[in-house]
Specification:
heterodimer, A: alpha+beta, Sulfite Oxidase, Chain A, domain 2, 5-stranded mixed β-sheet, 5-stranded antiparallel β-sheet, 20% helix, elongated, B: mainly alpha
Chain lengths: 281, 207
């Protein structure tokens, strides 16, 4: 006996032809679907309208992404302006899960972060200098101290207002060992071994560059690059090398970890990396 | 997705080898592979994104490589799935919205069975479309961030990063919702809703 064909699972009748104005986007059909069990529906007593909403939703999402990419900075700032007050009063910290500006973020490139007490800490200063030396925590504390309250701006967009730093200016430290005239740049090394940074001699002389020991009144924590890190005030955060372990005077600038990954070597806030953030002075 | 057979389902005139199964083996494999890749993407993203995890795990280059690899591979299961007739048919079902679907999505009693639902409910159709859209956006912005095809300026990369972050955040919420609905509305579990009749029971499906 021939079996009466009928649609499986009472699908609402729909036509599977590609009726969309958007050609070639309808991946699923090539005429009538012929999967097992599917039978052309009988004429429906009440014709149901159905629409290719799926592709419209897909295209809308893609369009939204493109708009976000095209508008970029201004849109970002507008949304951050709405979100930052929420973040500030949010006691759970959950608001920090939402993307956007939200204070310090960690880009942890090494397998483990150095965990040094102030007693264990050593800073080697060598290269093209007259008196290579190793400084302990106490030696740094004995040098003239500098206190700066400055914003901290990351190249990925987040900014921390009014961070209070204490430490020794890098040029003060270098004066203590005597820089030779052949030195044109300084290479800075991190304890994690992966991370280096560079500054020109002129930048060290003219810009605010700190060998920082304290942040907001406390010894810099491990996660913030403590006990001693670099702070290059006018530049994006990646120049402010964490877990500073060695300062070497060299003849030329050597691109560091992030510079090898496409970021500018002269990383002045608002004047590099194609960004227009408010400069830090 | 479970393939637990439900009883009493009319099979009609079908030549399907296992008409009681909601999804074919090919579809289940596609779903598993896609879910695994998206899962790896979310996990590695979390390690790079959440401060606590970032500091605890470190190894950013390795995590990034895993993340990028999983992301670039994510469309592959879907593309291979298109070789399957049943997968293509289900994509077609997810693509078409009836007026009832829109009403279903807007109604408060959408689980009551009052409104007829075919193989996929409107929530599932929405989830599928949003997921595909999000994956396209993540691939596009990820390509800009990686700078593989074009040497984008850093500002473009940070803009792409921002879109990538928000899209990933939304996609993660959608995935969490998808799993929650899948567990809550397991097929054959009648304790979670009160279907009016056998038809709606049969068609009640996970999110």
């Amino acid at each position: 006996m021939p079996v009466q064909p009928r649609p499986v699972e009472n699908e609402a009748p729909y036509e599977l032809g590609n009726t969309s104005p958007i050609k070639g986007f309808h991946l699923a059909t090539g005429g009538t679907a012929k999967h097992p069990g599917w039978v052309e529906p009988q004429t429906s007593p009440t014709p149901t309208v159905d629409r290719p909403f799926g592709r419209r939703i897909v295209l809308s999402v893609v369009g939204l992404g493109a708009v976000g990419f095209a508008l970029g900075g201004p849109l970002q700032n507008a949304i951050d302006a709405v979100l930052s007050p929420v973040r500030r009063i949010d006691p759970t910290g959950l608001a920090d899960l939402v993307p956007g500006e939200g204070g310090w973020r960690y880009y942890s490139v090494a397998a483990r972060q150095p965990d040094l007490s102030t007693a264990e800490y050593r800073l080697r200063v060598d290269g093209l200098v007259d008196r290579p030396n190793t400084f302990g925590w106490g030696d740094i504390a004995d040098l003239p101290q500098t206190f700066w309250t400055r914003d901290f701006q990351c190249v990925t967009g987040w900014r921390v207002d009014d961070a209070a730093w204490q430490g020794v200016e890098l040029r003060t430290l270098l004066d203590a060992v005597g820089v030779q005239s052949t030195a044109r740049a300084v290479t800075l090394y991190s304890h994690d071994g992966l991370y280096t940074e560079s500054l020109t001699v002129e930048q060290v002389e003219q810009d605010e560059v700190l060998v920082a020991t304290h942040l907001d009144g406390e010894v810099i924590s491990r996660d913030h690059g403590g006990p001693v890190r670099l702070l290059v005030v006018p530049m994006y955060g990646y120049k402010s090398l964490k877990w500073l372990s060695r300062v070497e005077m060299v003849e030329a600038v050597d691109p560091g970890y992030w510079e090898e990954r496409g970021y500018d070597i002269d990383a002045y806030v608002g004047a590099s990396n194609g960004r227009n953030d408010e400069p830090i002075t | 997705m479970t393939s637990t057979p439900t009883s009493g389902r009319p099979t009609g005139a079908t030549t399907s080898p296992s008409p009681e199964r909601r999804f074919s083996t090919a579809e289940i494999v596609v779903h598993a592979a896609f879910a695994l890749l998206i899962g790896i993407g979310i996990l590695t993203a979390a390690i790079m994104w959440l401060d606590t995890l970032a500091v605890a795990v470190g190894r950013r280059d390795l995590i990034r490589t895993v993340h990028v690899t999983a992301g670039l591979l994510a469309p592959l299961p879907l593309a291979l799935g298109l070789l399957s007739t049943r997968f293509r048919a289900d994509v077609a079902r997810l693509e078409r919205w009836t007026d009832t679907d829109v009403e279903w999505l807007r109604s408060k009693d959408r689980r009551s069975g009052r409104l007829p639902v075919s193989k996929f409910n409107a929530g599932q159709k929405l989830n599928a479309a949003l997921t595909v859209g999000a994956v396209v956006v993540l691939l596009g912005t990820g390509t800009v961030m990686g700078g593989w095809l074009w040497s984008w300026p850093t500002s473009a990369r940070t803009d792409a990063t921002w879109v990538h972050d928000w899209t990933a955040f939304a996609l993660t919420l959608a995935v969490v919702g998808h799993v929650v609905f899948a567990v809550r509305y397991r097929r054959g579990d009648s304790s979670t809703s009160q279907p009016r009749n056998a038809t709606s029971s049969r068609n009640r499906v996970s999110g």
